[in-house]
Amino acid sequence: MADQLPTSFHLTVVTRERKIVETDAVELVLPASDGEIGILPGHTPLLAALRVGVMRYRENGAPQVLVISWGFAEILPDRVIVMAETARLPQEMDVATAEAERVKLERELAELSSHDPQFAIVEGRLEESVAMINVHRGM
Amino acid sequence: MANTIDIRRRIRSVKNTQQITKAMKMVAAAKLRRAQERIFAARPYAAALREVLTSIATRVEELEHPLLHAREEKNVLLVVVTADKGLCGAFNSNVIRATMNAIQEHSWESVELLPIGRKANDFFRRRTIPIRQGAHVFQALTLDVARGFAKMLIDDFISEKIDAAYAVYNEFKSIIAQRVIVERLLPIERAWDEVGEEVEYLYEPGPIQILSELLPKHIEFQLYRILLESAASEQGARMTAMEAATKNASDMIGHLTLTYNRIRQASITKEIIEIVSGAAAQEG
Question: Could you say which of A12, A74, A121 has the minimum Cβ distance to residue B52?
Fold first, then answer.
């Protein structure tokens, strides 16, 4: 292994539509498919599938939060790339909007049969808005 | 000899047309910039996806997955991507011609088309080739659109309803250059490098599970990219076409003005001659 571990890592969060975060972070928590995983600088190389949830990371000072859904994370000792299906910053959506979206999506979901291809998409959106509400409540 | 009022009227009408083409060119330029930005915004994701696929391909010895599995191409689905609107030069007809050529060149047993864009829909609806319900997507081009099509393609491929899927579309080479290409979507070609840097990864969950989630994403992303490229190409093609039209209008106005002035000159000369000869006759 490396003689000395790096003290920070380069964090990039990309979606197909934009690059959201590019920064140096010292700590990161990801919603992996089998549960949350925490990452510190010098993590062993890891490829993880992600689910809908809250991603937390810390630059030198304040902790930052991001709601992401699905995708993958490639983790190397000095670099982390998160490829998310969607990613949203809490400041991009307030509680009221998220709440309204949750209600709307719940209604939509009730109308769809579980075989409908749209079902999984709407369900994911719903989880996303719930995660966003939780972020705001917790802050 | 045409009379001056007619010519003046024509000049005015050509000028009006020129204003329209000029405006359309400006609009296309603005839309092109936005379309280009979307392509650029998708690039980091493309790079990341490629990197991960490469590292898995390097790591997993026998890469096997239904979506990678090629079989004899009997039933084929062609995704034909045109624009919703015309007035963009040969943009739409190029794609349609390339589609017809591709169908003739290959000896596929059956071909189905998935027309995307109003122009393709309009054209192929009147033909004998079976088509699927396509869409006019370019008004609001989002990821969900690509995701829906990708899901359909993947389901049909896995259930062996189709043996291959191709996309015919305009690739965005530069603002002034588009190129029609026919690209295979399914089965997935191993477009990534087989030898990347050797990194020993842990996988969570296993590499095969990750792969089977990654490959559909790859298809989705390819479709999304194709739609973006086509949208940008369309604006580029329209810009070029409208630029040419504006120039043609200027040339035409030039010619007409010249003719107009000649006629005007001729009639003045004629009048002077009449006056002069009239005066000369009275003096005599």
Answer: A74
Total residue length of chain B: 284
For residue range A50-64, list pLDDT tens digits in order: 888 889 898 877 788
| In contact, B224 and B74? CB cutoff 8 Å | no
How close is the nearest chain B Cα to the Cα of A80, in Å?
Answer: 10
> Domain-by-domain residue ranges, chain B?
25-240
- Report the alpha-carbon distance of residue B133 to residue A54 in Å, rounded: 37
Please state which of the four CATH numbers 2.40.10.10, 3.20.20.80, 3.40.190.150, 2.60.15.10 is assigned to the domain occupying A9-90. 2.60.15.10
Contact call for B42 and A121, based on CB within 8 A: no
Tokens read off for A79: 């670099």
Of the CATH numbers 3.30.420.110, 3.40.1380.10, 1.10.645.10, 3.60.21.10, which one belongs to the domain with range B25-240?
A: 3.40.1380.10
Provide the β-strand partners of residue A27.
Answer: A58
Give the ipTM of the model, two decimals please. 0.71
